[in-house]
Fold each of these.
Amino acid sequence: MGLSDGLMLRVAGSGDIPAIRTLQALSIAILQRGYLDDAQIEASRVSMGLDTQLIDDGTYFCVFDDETLVGCGGWSNRATLYGGDHSAGRSARKLDPATDRARIRAMYTHPDHARRGIGRSILMASEFAARNHGFKALEMASTEAGRPFYERCGYAVENSFFDHNGGVAVPLYTMVKALTPVD
């Protein structure tokens, strides 16, 4: 799938994992500033990150600017709402499109490439794929920094909660969106 400004979106492969992890760490460290304090940013690393099940499932996307990874994210038909391979409480249980909402997962943009449509392109690709797999709605766990972006993309806050890591509370939001049927 092509994007503007010479950017290219494609499904992530296992060879992309090192670059994805590097991008995620940079995005957490930089783009959470102004929304979280230093302790919360550090604590958020415990619950954020890459769930390689997404890559195994073929539901995770990468955006490249030439050879440089500048964005990543995807969707899932599994029960885990958020978190990486290292996070507690993950579940590989498959969701039922008739009764469950697909998940938007692990969205990250390189700080030098923010506000160029990268996140929106990944989100649109994820919504399209989830819809094609029969899902009628999506949900995600959004950070404070991501919430305004997702609201602009049609997601609404369903509830708020705190992820507690090392005694530090990190605010998160469950956000949802109904998918419009394809004609």
Amino acid sequence: MISRTASLVAVMVALLPASAVFAADRATPEQAKSLVSDAVAYLKAKGPYDAVKAFQDPKGSFRRGELYVFVFDTNGRYIASGANPRLAGSDAADLKDAEGKPIVQAMIAETKDKPTAVIDYVWLNRQSNKVEHKHSYVTRDGNYIVGAGTYDE
């Protein structure tokens, strides 16, 4: 027999908005930075061919909750996308966020003179299926820009 308190807790959890459930699973900026660092090290050690396969593996170590790795070359071409592997090879130089901000151009420009940057934009969170503010941590390594991002709560 379920106690009255347990029943009340179960009802309260059921009534929580989906955003409250997702908030507990939100990635932190430190986790995103760590993922990018791991991805850059892997890219250097294994080369682009093996790195792309690893970054795009939906069950691999480069998918961590809502975090995934994306890679562009310095011309704005998708090299890898952990969120959507079909994007690899496509031209994203003119890709804009939901508010019209040219995000790939921002990543290229912000990492031109310094190796790391944080790019803020509005993007679809695939876990919540909502357009949210995103902060991508990007690192330029040679001709590659490697990134991962977190969403606001």
